[in-house]
What we know:
Largest sheet: 10 strands, mixed
Shape: globular
Strand order of the largest sheet: 5-4-1-8-9-10-11-12-13-14
Strand content: 25-35%
Number of helices: 11
Oligomer: single chain
Distance between the termini: 31 Å
Number of strands: 14
Structural class: alpha/beta
Amino acid sequence: MDNGSPVLCIGGLHFDRIAQSLAPYRVKASNPVRYIRVPGGVAHNIACDLVALGTPSSLLSLVGGDADGDAILQDTKRRGVDLTLVSQQQTLTTANYTAVLDMTGELAVGLSDTQTYDLVTPDFLAPHRRRVQEHKTLVVDANLPQQSLTWLAENKGPARLFAAPVSPSKALRWKQAIKNVDVFIGNEREADQLTGRPVETVSQALRAAQALRALGPAIAVVTLGPQGAVVSGPELEAHFSIPETNVVDVNGAGDAFFAGFTHALNADLSLEDAMARGIAGASLMAETPGPVWDGLAPGLLEGRLYTVPPLRILK
């Protein structure tokens, strides 16, 4: 497939600290864990996954002048992501995120220290306006302040903006900007925050996706973890199930879905193809520890596509 033009990802670039429970997770108690530190941030993860799948990508973000900042820049450059638009300010501390996973690899609690991104204001972004508008596809995550999401949505020019809500608490930052968003991809809890519609079933996910589209996006996707994902778009409303997956760690699976989906739409494939590639990417990532994986490759994605169950049209 034609991998399309470069994608600009704007948002999180930091380290994830992941603690995997070695026994049943208990709240308000000491839990034995296996601990790792890995590069992360939603925009970072999607950018790295896009490059691994063959789509060139770049990042626009902010890191500190500390050891974490130096290390995340070095690692991300090694992965092939263009960092020309990343700023490093010596007086700042690089953001970080801590995820505690239960024994099955599902998230038990996430701890986010991302105040550094509050400095990615419209004034910070304005000098990059021309570069932003030169891209066909923008991926923007809600680690940025609400006013910055609004500024990007209003100043994207001809680019298509794909909105990443990051978390239920940060999803609301899209509330004002969503009218100018082209594609929204979020999980059931994030969709609930923006629509006020509880999502537990496939039919509820469809209603939430339709409600999201009514707010502005032409395409809305609600992911449902082990239940797969639902899409509502001009030519397709359907449910996609996940293939058989040996889950190790779901951290990064949602970002891999986003990358597989964006990789396909940026190459002008159909919405059905984009959903299938998103599902395949999420399935692959859930079988590996950490939010990014050096082994991700186009051939692996194409191979996993053959195991994705047929879509089910929804009404």
